[in-house]
Every structure is written in C-alpha cells, then in structure tokens.
Amino acid sequence: MFQTVSLNTGLKEADSCCSWLGPCLIICLGFSLTGASKAESFELSYLAAQSEQQEQVRQVLVESERLEYAIEGLNQLFNLPLTIKVNVGGEQGPLHDPAQQYINIPYEFVSGLSRLYPEREDLLDVTVFVLYHEVGHALIDLLELPVPAELEESADGLAGLLSIELISDGGAPVLAAAGLLASRESIAASHPWFGQAGKTSRSRKLICWVVGSDPGRLGWVAEDAGLEAGEADRCPNEYEEMRGYWVELLRPYLRRR
Ligand SMILES: [Zn+2]
After folding, report:
1. Which of 109, 108, 110 is nearest to 66 (CA)?
2. Which residues surround ligand 1, an ion (CB under 5 A)?
3. Ligand 1 centre and the CA of 155: distance in Å?
4. Is the overall model pTM greater than 0.90, yes or no?
5. Ligand 1 centroid to 192 CA: how many Å?
6. DSSP label of 18
7. How far is the CA of 13 from the centre of ligand 1 (A)?
8. Which of 104, 174, 233, 242 has a CA-to-CA distance to 47 between 20 and 30 Å?
9. Where are the domains of the chain?
C-alpha cells in the first residue's frame, strides 16, 4: 500500500533494519500497516483546500502518500493514551495545539516552502520533517517529557530521531530541514515556525545527528556541510546520547518495548 520512499538527495537506501526497538517493521519485514486493534495514536486528515494554489499542494501531498507513510510509522511505534489528530490544511501553523491535541500543517505553509524547494521530493522531505517536529512538540506536551535543551531544539531532536529511525532514507528529511533552517531567505527567515534564534545551531545539530546515525555511510554529509573533522567525530556520540535519552523516556508508550 505504501511505497518505499525513494529520495533524490544522494543518501543511499538503508541496507539494514533500523535499530530502535524494532519499530521499522514497515521497512524491514513488510508487515501490514492496517488492522490495528485499538484507536490509532495519530490520525491524518486532509482538510478542504481554499484556493487553486492550495489544491495543487493538497494533490502533491495526497498523491505522494509521504505523510501517510510517516503517520503509519508512528502508529506502528506508539501506543498513546489518546489520538492526536494531524490536520493538513487549516489557517494557522504549523503548530501543535496542546489544549485540543491536534497538529495543523497549512497548505499555505507548504506552498511557501515550494518556492524554496521547487523539486517535489525536496519539498516532501522538508514537509515530513515539519510534521515530525510538530509530533515532537505533541509528545513532549502530552507525555510531559522533560526537555534536554531549548524547546525547539528538543522537538528537532525527536523529529530527527523519528525520521532517521522510522522511515527509509530518513536522513533526507532531516537534511532538508537543516538546509531550510540555515537559509536566510524568504519564509525561512520570518515564519514563526523557525523561531527567533538559534537557527544555525539547530541546523548543525540536525546535520550532526544524520552523520552520527551512520558515520560509515554518511560521513560525506559532514564534509558537504562543512563540519570540521573534530565536530564530525563527535556526531556518533551526540546521536547516541540524544537517541538514548528519548528512547528511555518514550519506552512506556511504545507498542513493542
Ligand atoms: Zn517548534
């Protein structure tokens, strides 16, 4: 039902099963993605488009099935006490509403991104990361998780982890987001989603996590991004620390522990 994600960023297809407590059933074992026995932890809806431009964005997202794939990965992994609704469309956001536990990703926002990312796959990559970033906020809030760093950086950490560990070639969305945060142009500089400060350090952290997740295969990313050798050498530890921190906190809410 869901195609294997094939990306054009130069990252190679993962050649081994992901290691995070076996959540990568979709990729590794080809398990059916349907038929869960209880309410899903995340529920994806596409709201009606309000303009022709929004409709074009909606069609790109729907046809790609990339958000479905990302959500199904989450539902395979998590057993949350309630369902978090993920609405694509709406006017405000990207945001997570802590009062009503929903996530909004407006078509207008994705349309704005498409001016920076004219290539379809790049646009989809960065949209997937935005989704996981908001999921990070939702998990931190709903599960009252203590954040190890500034809130945006913590949400990035969870987003990076989910992307890298849950989806095939999951480094690509993280690198796309790193590029966006590093950009000083257009909405990247002004949209509230990107926060007021620390964009460069957030971008470098994302790059470092991708490198650290598989240094043998992805060492070229550090070079490409201009990380100094000493900095790149620390990335595997940084990734393992970040991963260990979140896995421990999230363990009670995983379907397979
Ligand atoms: Zn945020």
Report:
1. 110
2. 152, 155
3. 6
4. no
5. 9
6. -
7. 28
8. 174
9. 36-252
